[in-house]
Structure formats: structure tokens, C-alpha cells
Write a structure and sequence with these properties.
Number of strands: 11
Shape: globular
Number of helices: 10
Strand order of the largest sheet: 1-11-8-7-5-6
Largest sheet: 6 strands, parallel
Strand content: 15-25%
Number of domains: 2
Helix content: 25-40%
């Protein structure tokens, strides 16, 4: 069994981007910029934004966080997005979700210019992805594919089974891996709550991607020998013996499944760290293409 180290891979990506940005800086050229917009007080969102800012600073990327009150009007948020759409210093715009209930998330996502949609959520980005055109891919699915690439895991003709059909992970990674392209070209099955017996499908998987938000749902008897497992789940489970009072578990029972897997991601330290790394990579791509 080979452990897929997402933390190390994310560090490698940041180091590669830093080299490119250092070259720009040393030659007196402008550098990529990413603005994050946070509305209200959401602890998990604040942690993510701080991590994003730290990662940007480490590689020399321009970064700015716009923190708005929870009662910010929808129109005021849309106006702010419009300003950054035409701000040449910032090549990526990230509006942190979830937003307060009085703000229409779809309207906000659609307000971002597709060329600055480094989160990959705009309908144009998603549409281009589905039909196989070049597009920004949402960061967690892009990170999954990047791990497969960097660990030389062949996807051509392989049966990829995805647990979960969310717009953030399940649907986009399915569309990424079924494309007739290098590092994709897979036979893809998407499983969800309507499946009468999920294990019927998971037992067929050459590559299993779990993104359902159910701690240790996937057991050893649900997979075949040699399966490649990418666990996207991040589940906090109460544990009085733990220092923080909880443990973080994936959607896969690592202790059981790791004995049958050929490759597997841990939780934490697997897919999770790749999300910010791919956000930075998307921003650099936006800079090089449209900056």
C-alpha cells in the first residue's frame, strides 16, 4: 500500500508556483493577485480564508481579504464583485460560501467574470468542463486529479466509482475523469443515496472517490483488492480522549481499507491540503492567460 501524501504534494505545487512568481518579481513584472470576499462570521470560512492568505504570502502572490458584515446587502456585494472584475491587480475572485440566507448564492457566483472564476463554480466554467473545453476546474476535484497524475496512477479505461453527487466534488470530478483526455478517459459511475446497494458499485471500483460526509462509511468488504482510494470526507466526531474533544475522520475506514488498497489518501493530510494549492494554481493560470 502506498500512502498518497496530499500535504507534501500541495507543498510541491506551492514551491513550483513560488519559483515562477519569484521570476516575475526579479524581472520587475507584476504578479498574480487573488481577492477573497467573506460575508459574515463563519468560523470554518475564516480559517480557510486565513490559510489561503498565508499560502499566497508564502509564494509571493498578491492577496487581499474583503470582510463584510453579515447584514451586507446583496447589491452591495454584487457591486464589490463588479469592481474586482475590472481591477487589473487581481486575477482571481473568491467569494467564500456559504453566504447569509438573504443573499442569492447563484446570483453572486454568476456575477464573477468567468476569466476570474478561480473557484470553478460559474455556470460557464462548469459548462465548458462538461463539453470538454478548457475551463477552470473547482479546486477539490482538480486536486484529486492532480494527485492521480503525480502518483502516476493510470485512469484510462479504469472504472472510477464516485460516492456523492455534490456540485463541489462529485459532479465535477465525474466530468473531469470521463473526458477523452490524458489523465482521464475513465469509465465513471456516480453513486448516491438512491442506490439500493452502494457496495454493488464500490466493489467494482478500480478507483474509488468518497465524498458523502459520512464517517468511515466505506468498509473493507465494500472494496476489491488493489483499489485506489481517494477520501474527500472531513468529519468531526466527538472524542473525549482527544485533546480537542473530537477526531477528524474520512468517509473511508482507513484502518480496514488500507490493507486492501494499492494507494490511499489519509484524513487529514490527503485531498484536503490540495484545495488551496489548486486555488493558487488556478489564480496563476488566470494571470498567465488573461492578466
Amino acid at each position: 500500500m502506498i500512502l498518497i501524501d496530499g500535504k507534501k504534494t500541495a507543498q510541491d505545487i506551492r514551491a513550483e508556483l513560488k519559483i515562477e512568481i519569484d521570476r516575475l518579481t526579479s524581472s520587475g513584472k507584476s504578479v498574480p493577485g487573488l481577492v477573497a470576499i467573506l460575508v459574515g462570521d463563519h468560523p470554518a470560512s475564516e480559517i480557510y480564508i486565513k490559510s489561503k492568505s498565508k499560502a499566497c504570502n508564502e509564494i509571493g502572490m498578491r492577496t487581499l481579504t474583503e470582510k463584510l458584515a453579515s447584514d451586507t446587502l446583496e447589491n452591495d456585494l454584487l457591486e464589490l464583485i463588479s469592481e474586482y472584475n475590472f481591477n487589473k491587480d487581481f486575477h482571481g475572485i473568491l467569494v467564500q460560501l456559504p453566504l447569509p440566507k438573504h443573499i442569492n448564492e447563484n446570483k453572486v457566483i454568476e456575477a464573477i467574470l468567468p476569466k476570474k472564476d478561480v473557484d470553478g463554480f460559474h455556470p460557464i466554467s462548469i459548462g465548458n468542463l462538461v463539453i470538454g473545453k478548457d475551463a477552470f476546474r473547482s479546486c477539490t476535484p482538480a486536486g484529486i486529479q492532480e494527485l492521480l497524475i503525480r502518483y502516476n496512477i493510470d485512469t484510462k479505461g479504469k472504472h472510477v466509482v464516485i460516492l456523492g453527487r455534490s456540485n463541489i466534488v462529485g459532479k465535477p470530478i465525474a466530468n473531469i475523469l470521463l473526458q477523452k483526455k490524458e489523465h482521464a478517459n475513465s469509465i465513471v459511475t456516480v453513486c448516491h443515496s438512491a442506490a439500493p446497494d452502494v457496495s454493488y458499485y464500490t466493489k467494482q471500483a478500480d478507483i474509488l472517490i468518497a465524498a458523502i460526509g459520512s464517517p468511515e462509511f466505506v468498509k473493507a468488504e465494500m472494496v476489491k483488492e488493489g483499489v485506489v482510494v481517494l477520501d474527500v470526507g472531513i468529519n468531526r466526531v466527538e472524542d473525549a480522549t482527544a485533546k480537542k474533544g473530537y477526531r477528524v475522520l474520512g468517509d473511508v475506514d482507513f484502518a480496514e481499507v488500507s490493507h486492501k488498497a494499492s494507494y490511499i489518501t489519509p484524513v487529514p493530510g490527503g485531498v484536503g491540503p490540495m484545495t488551496i494549492a489548486m486555488l493558487l494554481k488556478n489564480t496563476f493560470e488566470a494571470f498567465t492567460k488573461y492578466g
